[in-house]
Amino acid sequence: MKKVLAGGLLVFVLLLAVVAAGCIGGGGQTGTQTPATVTETKVKTETKVETQVQEKVFVRFAGWSAGETEMKNYEKMIKAFEEQNPNIGIKYEVITQMFHENILASYGAGVAPDVFYVDSAWAPIFIDKGALYPISDLADQSFIDQFYPFLLEPFMKDGKLYGLPKDWSMLALFYNKKLFEQAGLTRPPETWEELEEYAKIIADKTGKPGLAIYLGGFNRYVPVAVSNGAPKPWFEKPEDASWFDNPAVKETLTWYIDLYRKGKTERENQGLTPYVVQPSDVGAGWLGDAFGQQEVAMVISGNWMIPFLADQFPDFKYGEDWDIAPVPAGKEGRVTMVYTVILGINAKTEHPQEAWKFVEFLLGPEGQKELVVKGGQTLPSIKGFENDPDMWPQHKKTLSFKYDQMIVFLWGPKSGPLEGKFSDAMAAAMRGEMSVDEAIEVMKQVVQEELSS
């Protein structure tokens, strides 16, 4: 207690001294100044600043490629994203073969990329395996509402959305105007029968094959079947194999397979220029190469071919040398295929927020404006760009085509594996290794085996 009182008394004395000094020296008063001693205590404050360096997070992004153009476009966007987000690095990986099978295998092994393409045909399998992070758990509904609803349907299950489409495309007919002119043709073919007739005329008059197709390619055949009265294919149970028994299916599948058997094999046996070929028959890797090299007059392909032609064949001018027309019509109308792919997020990613930030950057209005609209990669998957002045005229033209049906690439819960096995059977028949009837039986068996478990 004494120590406390002594301390208080000392403070009181010091205060009196300070007050006294203030009174003597202030207020303009005169008189003799009495010296006073003031004790000043200085407190030194040290501020310690800790700088925390945020560790850089790397997000692996995997896709396939529609050619060098697409890869360059993504590399440009990745660079822009990393400049805006210096704490996130993107490792871009291109898988050239068996993409979905490789992704599923890497997912099972725990080494799958953080972000990867998923085609609509494979979406049900990825969703059922729990391989996709629900995008509806990451994105605001207002962001999701920007997208065309019909493009979201393949990626939904039990009220959850498992991905947002990066863009979309539709099949259209690409034709070489110069070869048409040489063959005396003044307009694109209107029907499937006319397509084959034109192909023959072009081969006979120009010495160039009139049409290139893929061997197999069940999804490319579907518009032929549906436009001629077949129902849209859907395979959910073994009994759905009966789709192949439909008369319109048998008739159109025979015609499609015979395109190559008659147009290539029989024509060459007769010593004539084939009027139908596959890309490798003319030294090309895919339809875009075959058409861009002007080795064939017509191909049916998607919007992804447009930027490829502009980039790889700049002297082959749209509107001057080549043009686009709707897919030919059948007896029951005109039908095209719609293709879309999401940027799916790995359900096991260690960096869901960073992965979503990258996906949001690519798929939002600004990203799609640069990558899809200005870059001309394909068609934007969000609404509002239909009349954008930066939309490439080639893409605008495809959007102007009128179709009775636009079928999104999805045949049921196992569309991906079914598509591959259907195409293998069709390709074998096209090469003459089995008859059309045998190919149909194989495809029916595939449905029964895939969906029996």
From TrEMBL:
InterPro entries referenced in this protein's UniProt entry, alphabetically: Bact_solute-bd_prot1, SBP
Pfam families for this protein: SBP_bac_1
CDD domains according to UniProt: PBP2_UgpB
PANTHER family: ARABINOSE-BINDING PROTEIN-RELATED, DIACETYLCHITOBIOSE BINDING PROTEIN DASA
Protein's name in the database: MalE-like maltose/maltodextrin ABC transporter
Upper lineage: Archaea, Methanobacteriati, Methanobacteriota, Thermococci, Thermococcales
